[in-house]
Amino acid sequence: MAHRTITVLPGDGVGPEVTEQALEVLLTVADLYRHDFTVHRRLAGLAAIAEEGVAISDETFDLCAGSDAILFGAIGSLPAEQRKNATVRPEQALFRLRKDFQFFANLRPIRPSRSLYHASPLKPEYLDGTDLIFVRELSAGLYYGHLDAAIPGKPSEIRRTERGEEAVDTLLYTEQEIERVVRAAFDIAAVRRGKITSVDKANVLSSSILWRRIVDRIAPDYPGVEYEHILVDAAAMFLLRDPARFDVVVTENLFGDILTDEAAMLTGSIGMIPSASLGVRRTEAGVFGLYEPIHGSAPDIEGQDKANPIGAVLSAAMLLRHSLGLPDEAAAVEAAVEEVLADGYRTVDISEDGAKLVGTRELGKRIATAVRRP
Amino acid sequence: MAHRTITVLPGDGVGPEVTEQALEVLLTVADLYRHDFTVHRRLAGLAAIAEEGVAISDETFDLCAGSDAILFGAIGSLPAEQRKNATVRPEQALFRLRKDFQFFANLRPIRPSRSLYHASPLKPEYLDGTDLIFVRELSAGLYYGHLDAAIPGKPSEIRRTERGEEAVDTLLYTEQEIERVVRAAFDIAAVRRGKITSVDKANVLSSSILWRRIVDRIAPDYPGVEYEHILVDAAAMFLLRDPARFDVVVTENLFGDILTDEAAMLTGSIGMIPSASLGVRRTEAGVFGLYEPIHGSAPDIEGQDKANPIGAVLSAAMLLRHSLGLPDEAAAVEAAVEEVLADGYRTVDISEDGAKLVGTRELGKRIATAVRRP
Ligand SMILES: CC(C)[C@H](C(=O)O)[C@@H](O)C(=O)O
Ligand SMILES: CC(C)[C@H](C(=O)O)[C@@H](O)C(=O)O
To answer: Where exactly is the site Important for catalysis (chains A, B) (predicted)?
Structure first.
C-alpha cells in the first residue's frame, strides 16, 4: 500500500471534464490496489484568473511543490481583444509550472491503435509498426520570454527603432539544459528498442550545432543505443513517410511543439495523446512530474460532454508509472483503454460508422469499469 | 519575342541532373514561342568550393544580379567530420543569394495530383480539394546567423560561460520585413480563392505578436480577402486533417521551412514541389527571383538518373510566370507535366505497380516533347 499526494489542476475549457474521468480512473486504481491517494483539486488558467486574479496562485503552486505529481487538464488563451492589454494570461500557469519546477523532459508517446486506423488521415500501411515516443525539451529555448526577462542577453520584446517597430526572441540553450534532456532520452531508448533520433537544424542554428555536439558526446555512454541526427524539416517529412522508423525522438522545445502535434494526427485524434513532463526532484518511488493530455482547452465544445477523455486517462497512467512508481497499475489502465476501444466505444472525434458513440463521461466510466475487471 | 537572361546554378548532388531537364524545357519554350533566352551556367555549393574555393564566387553573384532570374538546382551539406572545422560551407551560397538579393517571399505551391494519390501517405479523401500555396518569409528570422553578425543585438554563437558552454540564436523581425511578405501573400490571395491563413506562435513569441498585429493592420486593405490566424502547432495538424481548408498560408522563415516539408509529403514526393523566391527588384516584365525544387541534393542517388525532375521543371514554369512575365508559357509547361503523369510515366519516388518507370532524363525529355505538342 502506497501513500501518495496528487494535485489536480483541471484548468478550463474541456479540461475539467476530461480530468474528472482521469481522476475517477486513478481513484478506481487506489481502491482496487489498496493505495492511499491524497488529492488536492485547485484552480489554474482562466478559472483561476476569474476567482483568484492570477493564472496560478502561490498557494496552489506550493501545494504542487509538496505533491508527488500534478494531474493537469488544459488551459486556453484569452480571446484576441482581451489579449492585447492583458497582464494576466492563462498560459502563464503552464509556463510557471514548467519553468519553476524545471519540467525539462516532456514525454509524448505516439502509438496509433489499430482500432482507430479509420480515424487517421494516413493510410494503414503507413501506420503499421508505428510506436514512438517524443522527448521534448520543455524548460528552455525560445519559450519563457517574460519569465526569463532577468537573464542577461535573452530579450523577448517588441521595441521601437528609428525605422518602426521590431520584435526579438532569443533561443538560448546551456550545455546542462541540453545534456539532461538528451540523457533522459537515451535512458528511455535503452529500455525501449534502443534507437534515438535527435532532431535539430544544425545547418542554420548555433544552438543546434551545440545540441548535436552534446548528443555525440553522450552517445558513447550508451553503447546499446543506436543514434542518428536529422534536420527538423526532414523529420516533418519522415513522420509521414515512414513513422515506424522512429523509436525515441529527442528535440528542443519549439521543434517538439510542432512535431508532436503533427505526429499526434497519426493516431487519428489529438484527444488520444497523453504526456508526462518530468522534473528534477525524486519522489518516494519515481520523479516529480506534471501529466496532461496534449489537446488544448477546446472552448468550442466545452461543457457538451463531447471531449475525448483518453488523452487525460492515459496521462494518469503515465503519472502512476513515472511519479508514483506503480507500473502494474499503469499497465492496467492502458489495457482498459485498449479494451474499451476494441469494444467499439468512441467519442465523436474518433467515431465511425457502426461505432458506439458515447460522451466523455460514459467513455470514462467504461474505462474505470474495465480497470476493475480482472 | 522576349529577350531574357537566366543564370543557372545547378549546384551539387542531383542538382545538375534535374536542372538539366528544367533547362531543356525552358529552351524548348524559347524555341517554340520564339523568345531569346541568354543562359549563363555557373558553379555553386560543393562544386564551387571544389573549383573556386568559395560556395559562390563574386563573379557568379554579379552575373545573377544582372539576370532576370536564377534557376537553381540543389546544394548539399558537408559530411559531419568535415563540417566541424570548415569555414567554407556549401549552404552559404544559398544564404548569400537569399539575403543579399532580399528574396523575402518564398512561394511553395502544394497541389496533390490525382494521378499520384497512390504515392501519398494520406488517404485520398484527405487530399481531395487540396490546392494551397505557402508564402514563407525567407530573408530574416532565426536564419543568417553568420551573415548578420554585424547587426547589433542579433547574436548566433556558441560561447563559454563559467558553467560550461551555451548557444544562442536570435529571432529578429522588423516591421518592414513582416509587412512586405504579408502584403505579397495578400496580393496572391486576392487572385486565388481569397483566403489567407497566417501562422505564428503568438502565445509564446514576441515576434509572433508583432507579426499578428501587422497582419491585422494590413488586412483591411484587402476587403476581398478573408483571413485567420492559427498557431504553428495547430497548423501542423490541420495540414493533415483538413488540408483543403487552406488557400494561402503565410508564415515566418523557420515555421515555413518545417511546414512546407510536411505539406510536400501530401503530394507523394518532395521531388514534385517547385518554389519561387521573389525579391525586390522589378525586371522588364516581372520580379527578379530564384527558382528551385524544394528537394535537397540527395547525394545518395547522385548520378544515377533516378531523381524526379518535376520539381525543377515546375520551378522553371514559375520562373517563366513570375520573372519573365510569360504566363501562357508557364501554363504550357504545367500542362505538359500533368500530361506525362496522366500517361503513366514515373520516376522511382512516385512509382507504382503498372506504371512506366523511367529515369530523370527520359521523364524530362517526355515533358519537353509534351510542351511541343499543340
Ligand atoms: C499552450 C502552449 C503554450 C503549449 C506549448 O507551446 O508548449 C502547447 O502547445 C503544448 O504543446 O503544450
Ligand atoms: C538547406 C537549408 C538551409 C534550407 C532552409 O532551411 O531554408 C532548405 O531546407 C530549404 O527549405 O530551402
So the answer is: 143, 201
- Which domains, from first to last, does chain A contain? 1-111+269-374 (3.40.718.10), 121-133+149-267 (3.40.718.10)
Judge contact between B20 and B10, C-beta under 8 A.
yes
- Which residue does chain B place closest to A240, by CA atoms? B121
Q: Tell me the ligand closest to B290's alpha carbon.
A: 2
pLDDT tens per residue across span A243-284: 999 999 999 999 999 999 999 999 999 999 999 999 999 999
Looking at residue A122, what is its pLDDT? 98
Ligand nearest to the CA of B233: 1
In angstroms, what is the span from residue B39 Cα to ligand 2's centroid?
Answer: 25
Over the stretch A125-165, which tens digit does the pLDDT of each residue have?
A: 999 999 999 999 999 999 988 788 778 888 899 999 999 99
**Three-state SS for A263?**
helix
Which one has a higher pLDDT value, A2 or A326?
A326
Q: Residue A33 catalytic?
A: no
Residue bearing cell 518516494: A284
Sheet of A157-161, strand order: A157-161, A164-174, B164-174, B157-161
Gap between the Cα atoms of A118 and A137, Å rounded = 32
CA of A256 to the centre of ligand 1 (A): 10
Which cell is B355 given?
506504371
Could you give the C-alpha distances from A288 to A27, A189, B295, B300, in angstroms and in order?
19, 20, 43, 45
Q: What DSSP string runs through B250-315? A: EE-HHHHHHHHHHHHGGGS-GGG---EEEEEEE-SSSEEEEE--SS---GGGTTTT-S--HHHHHH
Which residue type is seen at A163? Answer: R
Q: How confident is the model at residue A79 (pLDDT cuts 50, 70, 90)?
A: confident
Task: Considering the candidates B68, B201, B227, B345, report the single residue annotated as catalytic.
Answer: B201
